[in-house]
Amino acid sequence: MKSLAELQALRDSMKGKIGVRDDAEGNTRVVIGMATCGIAAGARPVLAAFTEEVAKRNLQNVTIAQTGCIGICQYEPVVEVYEPGKEKVTYVKMTPEMAVKVVNDHLVNGNVVAEYTIGAKTK
Amino acid sequence: MYRSHVLVCGGTGCTSSGSERIVEALERELQENKLTEEIKVIKTGCFGLCALGPIMIIYPEGAFYSMVKPEDIPEIVSEHLLKGRIVTRLLYQETVQEDTIKSLNHTQFYAKQKRVALKNCGVIDPENINEYIGLDGYMALGKALTEMTPDQVIQTIKDSGLRGRGGGGFPTGVKWSFAAAQPAGQKYVCCNADEGDPGAFMDRSVLEGDPHVVLEAMAIAGYAIGANQGFIYVRAEYPIAVKRLEIAIGQARENGLLGKNILGTGFDFDIELRLGAGAFVCGEETALMTSIEGHRGEPRPRPPFPAVKGLFDRPTVLNNVETCANIPQIILKGADWFASMGTEKSKGTKVFALGGKIHNTGLVEVPMGTTLREIVEEIGGGIPNGKKFKAAQTGGPSGGCIPASLIDIPVDYDNLISIGSMMGSGGLIVMDEDTCMVDIAKFFLEFTVDESCGKCTPCRIGTKRLLEMLDKITKGKGTMEDLDKMEELCYHIKANSLCGLGQSAPNPVLSTLKYFRDEYVAHIVDKKCPAGVCKALLSYVIDREKCKGCTLCARACPADAISGTVKQPHVIDPAKCLKCGACMEKCKFGAIYKK
Amino acid sequence: MEMVNIEINGMPLSVPAGSTILEAARMHGIEIPTLCFLKEINEIGACRICVVEVVGMRNLVAACVYPVAEGMEILTNSKRVFASRKTNLELILSTHNRSCLSCVRSGNCELQKLCKDFRIYDETLYDGEKPASDYDDSAVHMVRDNSKCVLCRRCAAACAKWQDVAIIGPNGRGFNTHIGTAFNQNLSDVACVSCGQCIVVCPTGALAEKDNTKDVWRALGDPTKHVIVQTAPSIRVTLGEAFGMHIGTNVEGKMVAALRRLGFDGVYDTDFAADMTIVEEANELVERIKNGGKLPMITSCSPGWVKYCEHYYPEFTENLSTCKSPQQMFGALAKTWYAEKTGIDPKDIFVVGIMPCTAKKFETKREDESASGYPDVDVALTTRELARMIERAGMYLPKLPDEEFDAPLGTSTGAGVIFGATGGVMEAALRTAKEWITGENGEAVAFGEVRGTQGIKEATYKIGDLELNVCVASGLKNAKKVLESVKSGEKSYHFIEIMGCPGGCVNGGGQPVQPTAVRNFIDLKARRAAALYENDESKAIRKSHENPVVKEVYETYLGSYGSHKAHEILHTSYKKRNRF
After folding, report:
1. Is B450 on the interface with C (CB under 8 A)?
2. ipTM for this model
């Protein structure tokens, strides 16, 4: 490392990688159903897409977590987004590509991707 | 990119309780489940709750598993990591809530804590410099080198009110300014990692969990005083700490954070390790330097002080590990931030090693001024078995005992001194009603007698004579004249010894004499040990009413001191009894008691 | 000089900045007792006998190491100071083997004096367990009795800082701290050079020369023995100290009288043998220079130095002059030439050396030191042992008449006398060599460059066509420096004089012990040496080769300088000794 700028760059890239260990409250929590049904339906690549995308964008206040079966197996992979003080949003039948869009629209810009939500899918 | 991080404590406490095998089992299980790409296993430093080791935290959930065994690992992997179902039965019980898990920060043990020096311990992988950097590591050094003059660095440390955490409590910034004021030339920065107080292990935890913070702080000190060489004097009994320091120094050098022209600023600084053989006296600053120089580790008279004439007769700053652990944050967050914590004259936080008769043994970090009651009853979880708090010992062999009547005292440097104890490095040993204070004084004095370097007369001979007098008292052979002579000798040793070891060695005796004089008198006049500890003064007796004549005690007795026929009350012959207590342990009817 | 203002016991004083409280107090006539303090080499503040109060300080400080500062108020005789010093002394006494009546240092013990000064009324006050102690009489030259050790560490400092040998030092820690060798080996099994500097700085009877007086008393009482004695050059200027005389008093005549009254059959002078050494050694030097022999040649008079060389610098043993030391030359000639001349069987001749040196005891036991087939010297006594014999015989040295040495072995020159001071051998050799090389026969000239108490002296003398580079070193730490500079090629000399003890024999390990109260403030080396140079000035003959008895020995017995016979009788050999 030859300069402070280089150090800062490394710090910033590392921040995302270890941000997962921050269990500060007030974070937006993205919870992915990772029970047998979810995994069978392809929850793993979705989870991976979320973690990568969040890290890539260096989102500091997002916690990605996993959970067990949410109980709506036909809609797996299911992803729930909990924002403090807001109603939770449930996305269903997620794919990695959809995950990228959720991060971009919902987590970054605050616009729920309505067409992926359980409400839209069950209509 | 990992979706989940599993932090396993790799501190000495958890390593002893088997965390190495946990890591092995975990890695094997992850391999089998093809999860190695998704789950990251990190061996961290100490979390502080050593009594519950091995400890494991899984993020992002923050699930805190305690006393994990290798056979629990398959379940943790398949349930938690694969399916996202937390294994409630293995959680630290206090964190279990009905629907979800409680954050560790809300448990009684952690709620009142304020982690500054231990900020990264248990959070980062100490063998990976990038993780340290990810949490602003080396940014303070960068800031000091690029934005601050050495004087500004020193002023910031002065303004923060940081005082040496090794025991003496000397203001760190002032110490630095003395060394900085010396004419330019070869100067040194030393880190005292020769933690020696019995029961204290905060420095070890920092070294094991966050070694880079020490390196960064030393480099900052080097910049401030104009030194380009540092030495860490670490005891060889800390093999994990030594290994992590070696790795850390190597990584820091590779990354250009130690060595020549650090961060392109033209500042050179490097660090070498020196291993100490564990002599307690080598924690004394001049003895430590004498030892680094390759001589017998003995203190030398001051002045000249190390800041003027220290290592190899050059100006030297010596800081303790915990002191170092505060420095980068002070530089980054400012003096005011640090000074906002603590009391008027003791700023910041202090790490204590809780031990003795207390529920939660381990490391705790609290703001200065937290009361002893909060530490013992709330954080420490109180005394086990419903026993009463009798006293707390702080400051190790140089400190003293704080009686129950002073339990509400806010703990800081000056308060402890005013009641005849001292902060020391932060050992805090809790004693209950079963503790004999004369015996405790003897215990600490035995330690100093063993660890005295033998250079000066009062410490070499005086402490030994003191111990002999205490021994006489615990054997019921003391006189009231002995008590006066002993007290006089205590003051003599304090006033006449060459170094801090001798000057503080009588403190455990003086403070117990001050607060528990009646116990001494009971030993001398009544020939009784009120706590029932001093063997020579107690006898084991069988209660005829309770004894069922089962003969178990007689069979357990190694000295054939118990006689009696089956189904008849037994009797102990005091002449033969060795007072080992084996009979009392065996008796199922509580018929045997000490008096 | 920058001065600071301080107050001692309420008296305002001005003292140099940077001085210690001890120095400052002494400057103004205020004495502070010390025990461990040995100026320049043992300033460690360990014994706490010199503690004083500094107003405003919680603890007492050690005056021997604590520097004064502007405005400092010091109390050297407060109640607290007295009580503290006394308790420290009582603590020391609780570990001390208090068999003072039979102690070799009784009457000359610094601990005993402190007890008297402090009015100790109960030496058992703090008695308890005594630390384990060992008694080591394995070495030829000395005895270590740790039960009398007060752990002042002056011995260890002398060994490490003057001699750079560091064969003894503190072992163990706390109450079990004791002075010993590495791994507590016997002194005879380690690379001790036998110099005895540890003994002369020991405040108590923990270190002492091995007492050989009984061997001498036995010989003196044996009618079949012809017992003769030789006294080394420096004894005459130090023996008086053992009887309370001023440092640097020449008591040659009284010493001779005392020896004669002790019953010696011949009272002779090692100075004669020193003259022999000079001619033989000067001849060897000339031969080496002429014939391309090993250079630099280094003197071999000091057995402590020779042993050091064998242990630590065996690569230099070829540089050592093969000449025996004066003590051994004396013995060799006594049992050959003198035996023949007097018709006494050498087996009946008992030669006693009175030496300033403990290493001389070791030297008598060396191999290749028995020209007649019997050991050249039977017993070497130190100055201290001689003083004890004189006391035991009921003599008071200052009251004895002045008498002369016996002939023939008592005839000597001024060149022999100055052997006792550093640079003396060099100067004596130069006096002779200059005349031999230039053929001039003039007044003896002083070679001032090689005189004085400095540890290392260098000079270049033009003698004939030769530019002779010489060096003089005393104290083994200085010897080491010189050897290293020669080894590295940095320095090139023809001739080097090395004496094992700092200042040479006048400050030898066998000399009367002066307490630190004297030693710390008076340069013993310089005062004693001055008396030797004075003695040289007063001598009629001041060049060794002009000694008539030396001439007679060569003419009637040895033939020429460096002859075969001279080699057989007067030369010896060296060997490598282990360092560990």
Report:
1. yes
2. 0.93
